[in-house]
Design brief:
- With 157 residues, the protein is α/β, with parallel strands linked by helices.
- It has 4 helices and 7 strands, in the order ββαβββαβαβα.
- It has a 5-stranded mixed beta sheet with strand order 5-4-3-6-7. Strands 1-2 form a two-stranded antiparallel ribbon.
- The protein is globular and about 45 Å long.
């Protein structure tokens, strides 16, 4: 599985995990937060889904990586939000199995979801947030879900 970084280019998952761990080692006194969020963009022909992995050094910056995936067009909003959330949760499991479990155990993990109190997605808040919290993670929605609504969104088109 490959990821992209604005500064490092294309990296393997193992290289990404190593770079995230190195980032934490640069300032062991800082507090960190691990964020995973997915956003999508749909055209008539395809839906592009982008999942971002962010390590936020609280008050002192962040590093992020992302991966893109294409699927058949997902025009239904509910289906698209469920797919975005599924990809975020799936990536947490993959990262845990790939050696990032110690990092994820040491710092809070948030799943950022591109839904909010405004617009059509408000009817999905309870069920999507319930799903994320039921599997043991903290759910963030707009305006606090920058991992999905800003970082992943930037690369989804």
């Amino acid at each position: 599985m490959m990821f992209l970084s604005p500064t490092k280019g294309s990296v393997t998952m193992e290289e990404m995990i190593g770079q995230l761990q190195e980032y934490v080692k640069e300032d062991t006194e800082a507090k960190y937060k691990v964020i995973i969020g997915t956003d999508s963009h749909t055209t008539r022909r395809v839906t592009t889904l982008v999942t971002a992995v962010i390590i936020h050094r609280l008050g002192k910056g962040a590093r992020f990586f992302y991966r893109k995936k294409s699927s058949r067009p997902l025009h239904d909003l509910r289906t698209r939000i469920y797919k975005e959330t599924e990809l975020s949760l799936e990536l947490v499991d993959i990262l845990n199995r790939a050696g990032m479990s110690s990092l994820l155990a040491d710092w809070p993990l948030e799943i950022h979801i591109d839904i909010g109190q405004q617009g059509d997605t408000k009817v999905l808040i309870q069920e999507i947030c319930g799903w994320v919290t039921s599997v043991g993670y903290e759910a963030r929605i707009k305006p606090m879900s920058f991992g999905a609504s800003s970082v992943a969104d930037r690369f989804a088109e």
